[in-house]
Structure formats: C-alpha cells, structure tokens
Amino acid sequence: MSRASGPVHLTTRIPQPSRPLPHLLQHRLLQHRLCRRPHAGQRSVQDSSLQHSSLSGSRTGHRGRGPRSSARWSRAVLPLVLACGLLSAAAGSPAVAQEAVGVVLAPVRGQTVTSTGDFVGTVMPVRRSIIGSAVDGRVIAYNVDAGQAVKTDDTLAQLLTGTIDIELAGARAEERLRAAELAELENGSRPEEIAQAEARLAAAQAREVYTRSRLERTQQLARSSGAISEEELDLARSQFLSAEQERIEATESLALLRMGPRQEQIEQAKARLAIQAEAVALLEDRKSKYRLRSPFDGYVVREYTEEGAWIQQGDPVAEVIDIDPVEIEVYVPEGSVRFLQPGMAVTIRLDAIPDREFEGTLSQIIPEADMRARTFPVKLRVPNQPEDPRYLLRPGMLARATLPTSEAAVGLLVPKDAVVFGGPSPVVWKDQGGVAQPVPVEVGAASGGSLVVRGNLEAGDQVVIRGNERLRPGQAIRSTAPASP
To answer: Which domains does the chain have, with CATH numbers?
Structure first.
C-alpha cells in the first residue's frame, strides 16, 4: 500500500496471463476495477495495475507461456474476482439502507411582523434644574450634598436676611397705619363728636340772638336821639353778622358729622392702604429669595457653593434632577421616522442590565432633523420606580430602543438557528417526509429569536434547527427532540 497527499490508492500485483482470458473473466475483472472506485464520504481504493491492455493480453513479456502458468494465474485471480462481484452486488442492493441522522425540528410560523431596528440612545433625567440665586447675599446655611435625595420645597441654602428684615418691619408698620385710617373713615363720627357739634351750634345761635338785639337797640338810639355814633352802629352790625356766620358754620359742621365721611375719602384711604400692602409684599418676596428651595422631588447631582460664601444674583447654588420617569433620546433616520407614532410602546434594553427589558412609551418626535446626519430626535419615556430603594435606570447609561422601520405585513418566521449561511445564498433544511431538502431563502428582518424568510416554504412546515450543518440533499433524518412551539 502506498500513501500520497491525495486519495489513498491500493495497488494489487496480479500475474499476467500468457494468452487472452475468457470473456466472462474479463468482465469480472472490469467489474472488480469499477467496484473499487471511491464512494461519498469514504477513502478511494483503486487498482492501479489493472489496465485494459493487460486483459487483452497485449503485453509481449508474457507471450508464449504454457498452460501451467495460465492455470496458476487463474487460481490466484478467480477468488478475488468472485469477492469483488459480491461487493458490487451488495453495493447495488437496496437492502443496505443509509442510517437516518438525528436532528431537532421546529415549525415555520406565519405571523404579522414589522421590521424593527435597534437605535442607540442615552438615559436622561426627565427634568433637570440648576438652582441659582435671585439676590446678592452671604450663604449662612448649605443643607445638601451631592447625591442626596430632596423633596419639593426643601431648603438647599439660606442667605443672610438682616437688612431685609428691618425694611420689612418698617413697611408693615406703615401698612398698619393706613389700615387704621381707613377704619376711622369707615366707622364715621362718634356720638360724642356729634354732641360737641350740637353744643357749638347752640352757642352760635345764642350769640346770634344777642348780637341781633344789640344791633336793634343801637339802631333805635341812633334814630331817636342821635347819641350813637356811626362807628358804634357799624360795630354792632359787624358783631351781629359775625355771630350769624358762626351759627351757619356750626349748623353745617353738625350736618357733616351726622352724614359721615365722603365715599371718595374712603376710597382714597383704601388706595393708600393697598399701596403700602404691595410694598410689604415686595419686601416679603425679596426675603423669600434669600432661601433657595428644590423645585421638585429628585436628587442633588452638583454643588456650586459652600456655607460662608458670597454669591451674586444669578450665581448657581445646586443642580437637581428628576429620574422618575427617565427619558431616552434616540436619533432615527428620515426613512424610518414615518413609521413612528407618539404613544406607541417601545422595548428598551441596557448594556448595564443585560438580563432585563424595559417597556417605555414614545413621548415625542422632534419635527426638525439634524441637517448633517438627516436624523430626527425621538424622545422615549420609561417608568423608573425605585427597587429596594435604588433606581435601576440612571442618567448616562447606554440604552438601545427597538423601533419599527416598516409597515406591518404577514410573513414566514423561522428560528434563527434554522438558517444556514455560508453558501451562495442562505438555506433552510426542510423535512420532506423524513428526507432533508435544502430550500434557498431570502432573509428579512429579525423578530425576537426568529427571522423573516421568503422562499419555497409554508406555515407549518418542519425545518431543522439543530444538526443542519452537515446535512446533504436527500439524506434521511429523524427528529430527536420535540419541535419548539
């Protein structure tokens, strides 16, 4: 036996006959030669020394030998020829069948599918606020640290309020004064004031009566005797007129007291009180700005000042974020954005948590694309309830969102393991009555653990998902495990 780099050849040395062999013997030798040709999956065995020229007795080196040599040669070759004939009969007999190969089968499923794609984004807080100071002042208390949870209206920092407290106290006193003035007008005159006015009126009336009598006597004396000068007469007349005006004045004063203040005066007092109240509110608002509060529930992620520092109006103090829920922003190409709708469910996966999937909602599609990438920002919102008591989704994590990239259509789905790649085209091995039959397919989108395929398949066909790497067309197969549903 000789070994080479190619197929293994077996060389057999057979004595050559001195004369042509009978026709039957030539046929058997030729059959022996053919039966030694290599089969599929076996090593080739070929008789390299038997040539057709030897069967015809054309070699001159063996001519002229006698019957004894021919008999010896026949006795050596005949058993070999008979064995070759038996092997040939066995190879052509259907009684020796090829053993079936064990495989795992799964059915082809018909289902409405939508092509999807994975889009990479980043987990972001749903709200972020950098709290700054609205006034100048010195920090006298800084109550939080980075990473600390805060509630709405919790105090983050307190500024010194000595000067504003003094101004506010004076404004409040002025407000009380204006309020008292308004109350005095609204209450009207007191009974004692009315009695006092009545008394003044009575006194004025008495003086008027006295001066009138005196004027009448003076006029009578002046006419009768001429003993009264003009000056005395004018004086009596003047005193009477003065007493008369005093009585008129006292009468009107009493009437005013009885009617009370005018409505216009009351309105003026109300206006002065409102102006002062606004002045107080302004100071109170300024004072409230000396205390910096958290605008919502969340976490402090950055500190920008410390206790004792002087800060100016507009300077940042702390940064707070809200992470329940979280927001994920992905960028979708212009050819796929038309298949998205606000409110649709979205599956989210995170590289940091590979064993879980999260369900979210498409909350917003920004209508303006990036001019260079031609992609549209799409915002997804994912609930993020704390678990013992940590939050699983944290800003900055890498996220992958599965979004539709085509319209929904009916297609055939096979498990991913059923498709064999590597040839001119992908192939699926179909169970055709216990025989493996290759079916070329076109592979579409992935849907979970399955692939959408197009080819000579129907829903319900059984395809090989394990053991399909070494199958040959027409090879017998048998199922070794229950088909997956």
So the answer is: 23-92 (no CATH), 102-112+408-481 (2.40.420.20), 116-159+292-405 (2.40.30.170), 167-283 (no CATH)
